[in-house]
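Protein modeling request. Please complete all fields; requests missing the sequence field cannot be processed.
Requester role: graduate student
Desired output: 3D structure, token encoding
Chains: 1
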Amino acid sequence: MRIKSQKDFFSGLMFMGVGGAFAWGATQYNIGTGARMGPGYFPLMLGILLAVIGAIITVKATITETADGDKIGKWAWRPLIFVLGANVAFGILLGGIPSLGIPAMGLIVAIYALTFIASLAGSQFKALEVFILATVLAVGSYAAFVLALKLQFPVWPSFIAG
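Delivered output (162 residues):
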């Protein structure tokens, strides 16, 4: 077997792996039937669908020839580190880590940190644009989650909100 498109082949394998993991994880819940679905039904079906799509992409990558073989490029470490770091910072700032003495800073601070850290992943950084984006995201998130959905979580740091 000769791989004719490396990008498609390995992305298909990734889809099959993630889909298989979701399907396997869903078996820990009650599946139910199509007419009476349990909590594991949707993730199981979604995982199976993702694995099937991955299998189709993987098989197609061994059949369809591409111009240059579609080699896999270098890893983009900078975006990977900053985007993952932004999500970790968001989680820590939103809820805090009480066991380490890190207090919850709330939704607004977490969104600003997420936006500024993630924007460092790109090749250009324009502070004013990032600030405007963070403000729009913070206001929109506050309106959607706190005002509209009435979710209960810290919005502001405890030393400000009391």
